[in-house]
What does this fold into?
Amino acid sequence: MQFPEHRAVRTAPDTVRIERLLPGPVERLWAYLTESDKRRQWLAAGEMELFAGGRVEHLFRHNELSLESTPDRYRNLEAKAAMVGEVTECDPPRLLTYRWPGDHGESEVTFELFAEGDHVRLVLTHRRLLGAQTMISVASGWEAHLGILADRLAGSSPRGFWSAHERAEQEYAKLFERPDEA
It folds into this structure.
C-alpha cells in the first residue's frame, strides 16, 4: 500500500497510519519523541520511561504550540490533567509503542524511525480507534501535531495548530465517515 505524505490512511477498521519525511538525524527525532522539553514543543510535555511497562505522561497545552488561540469548543481541554499511558515496546532510537488512554478506551500508538540520507521517515500508526469520529479526531490531531513537529525540526515558526487541525478534520471526515473507505 502506498502512503501519501501528509495524510493519514486507514490500514484497518480501527487503525490509521501517517508517514512523514523529516529532517534528521534519527537521534534528534527520537529526542523530540521522548524528551519532555522537546515533545512539549509539538505535542505534549510529560515524563516517559523508556522500557516496556514504563509510564508515559502527556500534559497537553495546545495553546503553547502556535500563536493561534484555542477555539471555544476545545477550551475545556486546556486545563486537563496529564494523560497517562504505558510503554509496550521500546527499541531506541527506532521504535516506540505505548498505550494511549482516552479516545473512548485504550488505543495504542507506534512510532517507527527509518534513516533516509539526511532525513528520517517517521511512520506513526495509531490502533484500536473505536468509530469513525474517533478516527477523524485522532488523524486530525496527529496531522496538526506532526506539521508543527516538521516546522520545529526545520527551524521554522510553527504553523497554526487549530487551523491545521480544522482543515484536516474536514478532509478526514470525508474519508473516514464511510466504513467502506480505506
Residues 132-154 form the longest helix (23 residues). The radius of gyration is 15 Å. The longest strand covers residues 107-116. The chain has one domain: 9-176.
